[in-house]
Amino acid sequence: MALTTAARRPPLREVAGIPLPATTVDNWHQIQGFEAQPDDLLICTFPKSGTTWIQEIVDMIEQSGDVEKCQREAIQHRHPLLERARPPQPSGVEKARAVPPPRVRRTHLPTQLLPPSCWENNCKLLYVARNAKDCMVSYYHFQRMNQTLPSPGTWEQYFETFISGKVGWGSWFEHVIGWWEMRDRCQILFLFYEDIKRDPKQEIQKVMQFMGKNLDEVVLDRIVQETTFEKMKANPMTNRSTAPKAILDQSISPFMRKGTVGDWKNHFTVAQNERFDEIYRQKTEGTSINFRTEL
Ligand code: PPS
What we know:
The protein is of the alpha/beta class and 295 residues long. The protein has a single domain (28-284), classed as Rossmann fold. The protein has helices spanning 5-8, 22-26, 28-32, 51-62, 67-70, 75-78, 92-97, 116-120, 132-145, 155-163, 172-182, 193-198, 200-210, 217-226, 229-234, 270-284; strands spanning 13-15, 18-20, 41-45, 104-107, 124-129, 188-192. The strands form 2 sheets. The chain has a 4-stranded parallel sheet, sandwiched between helices. The radius of gyration is 18 Å and the shape is globular. It binds 3'-phosphate-adenosine-5'-phosphate sulfate. 3'-phosphate-adenosine-5'-phosphate sulfate is lined by residues 45, 47-53, 134, 138, 141-142, 227-229, 232, 256-259, 263. Residues 45, 47-53, 134, 138, 141-142, 227-229, 232, 256-259, 263 line the site of 3'-phosphate-adenosine-5'-phosphate sulfate (PPS).
């Protein structure tokens, strides 16, 4: 019997007002009990902010630029999502427990929901932020093709859902500002998607230093070449083509969609843009964070 839309796309539930996949909420106790180690590196992002890109960069650095080693597994399995829970498969926390530190994991959790041990044990936190407008567009297309997330509805409907923080992992504003405010208090490297796009080598060097690695120029140049959008889109180990169509239907929208800064201009109406700019001004007032929305 065919699954109903509701069964395929279950509604999000909430933890402390943050919408999350229902299975993650069911597993919340285990997620909060995750025991981070000081050597762990946690890649932290709001969804659609360049997670996969920074994962490949981190892995290339860890493997000292060895392309073959980075082909060992699809990217989503190399650094499982900490809060992922899809029984009967092992959860993100169970997978983390099964490997010795130093571990590289990823999470979309906002600061207030991060397992406490990540702060207490001072693990390395690598945050990547992407401007809200491109993030919104990318998330809209992702929700069209990701059969495990709620249907986004029309672009107009999605615009409202996103600005009211009703998408998975909550408000972009609270997420990004929350992490921005923590950046000097812990071991956090805070990067911007737009900066990686503009000067990948410079940003990759920052990641390398943060990871305590020292790679020569030739290796750095190789990492820049191997992590371009075009290369990663053509690479089955990074383009999510290994995920079943019942989960990611890439005939609706590819996972590696455009990889640009400024695609929002093809989606936002003039009225939406003006409204968004005003909301953005209000929400970011008093913070020093600064985004590029074009290069
Ligand atoms: S997810 O599902 O939250 O993990 O998605 P995430 O990886 O964070 O974000 C996906 C968007 O990042 C783009 N991407 C890249 N852009 C530039 N260069 C490289 N190498 C790269 N890799 C992934 C990807 O195309 C998605 O953005 P959009 O705008 O939808 O194309």
